[in-house]
Amino acid sequence: MKIALGPILYYWTRQKVFDFYDSFKKSELPIVYMGETVCSKRKELHLHDWLDIAESMAAQGKEVVLSSLALISARSELQSLKKICANNRFLVEANDMAAVQLLTELNLPFICGSGINIYNAHSLALMHKKGMKRWVLPVELGAEALRGILQDAEKMGISDNLETEVFCYGKLPLAHSARCFTSRAKNRPKDKCELACIDYPEGLLLRSQEEQQLFTINGIQTQSAACYNLLSEWRHMAALGVDVMRLSPQAENMRAVVERFHKVINGSNEEILLLDESMLEPSCNGYWFAKPGMMAHEPAC
Amino acid sequence: MTLLTRSLSKTHNLIGKPVLARIHKLIPFRLKKKIIEEVLNRAFKQVIDDGDLEFLKGKVIVLNLSDLNESIFIGWNSSLQVLPRGEYDVEIRGDLDEFVTLALRKEDPDTLFFQRRICIQGDTELGLAVKNLIDSVDLEELPGAIRKGLSITETLYPYLMPSGAR
Amino acid sequence: MELVCPAGSLPAFKAALNAGANAIYVGFKDDTNARHFTGLNFNDRQAQKALALARDSGVKLYVAINTYPQPTGWSRWQAAVDRAVELGADALIIADMGLMTYVKEKYPQQNIHLSVQGSSTNAASLKFYKEEFDIKRAVLPRVLATKQVEQLCEKSPVDLEVFGFGSLCIMVEGRCVLSSYITGESPNTCGVCSPAKHVRWEESANSRRSRLNNVLIDEYQHKENASYPTLCKGRFKVDENTYHALEQPTSLSTLEIIPQLARMGIKAIKIEGRQRSPAYVEQVVRVWREALDAFKQNGERFSVSPQWLEQLDKVSEGQQTSLGPYSRPWQ
Questions:
Q1: How would you list the strands of the sheet with B118-122, edge to edge?
Q2: Which chains pack against C, by 3+ Cβ pairs within 8 A?
Q3: In this complex, do C236 and A290 lie within 8 Å of one another by their Cβ atoms?
């Protein structure tokens, strides 16, 4: 089982991004995804900055993947995507079918992010045929669906050179819109958002009128308010055939979170708590158990 | 709105409905039950034949005609049945006028609900299923007597309930 | 432009026919379509009847099989495709690429339309579906601005259909799981959004509250219009403000840009609402028929009649309509 650091979903300052990746250079983290996946207006870093960081991480022996935008609707977005796909150096994670098409045209292998709707082995087989070498399970699917998909994939003979990844830690990306909810919260039109997201390095909390924490607003993306956490499920995942656990960056203490996962998975002998204060609370895991995503489900042992 | 419409509508509200409410109370439950069941099972015959009423098994729906102060409890056991008062799963409440409006398909039920002219409490899914069921009844395929009743009501509708087309 | 109308039942189908639909889309009575509600949709007998009616009046019949099959349900989706092809549907509206693979292999002649749930918003993505499955048409998600639709019309390798009227999804369709986060069921997996079995209405003397799996979605004061507790249309708190943090309950209506859509080359206009009553279908389709006919007659001198707007507002969620993504300030 490998650990992957997912792309930063929030809008951080340039310095914060560089510092963030610096802090992982010496870590044992094997896979790093990076790049802007939420909003094309976020330009603290340009593609060449991402490529610089990618080079420096690769120099430390890490597998680097460039993640691409989740919703491609403007012509300019398609142009930027083309540049990412043609970077000639790093693998690309497709988060829109546009990326799948462009990468296929270039005859390049690729990774499908959780936003590419692969709900069954027939879709998996098609993407595999097109050059997909790893896929991320859609966040709303759980263990039973995954078991079924992988069993079918095996019968279809496509499971050998295909890796499976699961979103295992962080606020869940739940929806994307053309509309920006951060600028709406600031009472600004999207055209004049003044890049308000930069003030919310962990997003903006949305509560019910009864103060129940529901969602996190992150520009055009809506995330869960609770932090998805499947650390306790890692053995089950490994048994199912999961190859990679994705941890989605949070603004503080991410290094500690990665270490915690690393220690648990690599079974160091010391007594290891599944939770510590560096992990975000409240946490949830419902999706994995085929329950509402927001639920914190205690599996019956 | 013409004078005639206004006066008919007024008569309907001031005299018609109270009288209806009174008559309603005078009819013995057993007779009422018989009449309503007869109408319902005929109206929903096709739906029943299609087996689409099975989801009602063991459920009780209450139609609460609030202005007549009358509740009709309906259940399903191989046929639609009017039940004595008791526990129920969902209550659909509104004035008689609103139910007539719905029966004639003059208005979209969602519209009435959003405007709060109809209320649904309890098992919302069951309430919605009942709505869908009523929507799926083909008025053209109804037995003659029921169709005739509806058509008379339809003729009177604009006079009695000018507000129905709000 | 073709007027594509919804029908969740035979009476709604007839209403759409009578009011002037060019094509009508339906779903079967199971979770293979994105309006999977009890008592709604078509069994085989009703589908046969709908087809006969459609053929009699030269109207097209489309079957939506637009949810995402998981391994345990695969055979049900396959069966839905088989039934729709056997029925003689003019097109299947599909979202899942696995299912499209099945259609292409088994019924290479069958027309496929990419469902809005397939979430295609750009030329490269449309090209993928065209090359892979030879789709004839794609339904665009309700998130694109007018200019983006226009650009897409220039580049698209397939015919495009846009939503003209109905409930407004503000999230990209096919990529929103807010509903399953709260209830466990989403449009992709179960063909439902904010499903009724998790909805509870609480009526009290002064207010009406709507809950979804116990989560308070909104509270309406006396006389205030209510709306269905769809998650993206609730009133929530952000910082200390309570407001429609994602979207107001409103419906999309694009009557006023009919000339623009036609000029761009949009081939079909879709009316949303298979879950709505025959009365809704009748009212909305009639207005749109009149509007499209008026445009045909008057061309660029086309103007929107106030009566149409009044009719549409009445059946709209929140009793108001907006141009949604087609108006710049919306985004």
A1: B80-83, B70-76, B61-65, B90-94, B118-122
A2: A, B
A3: no
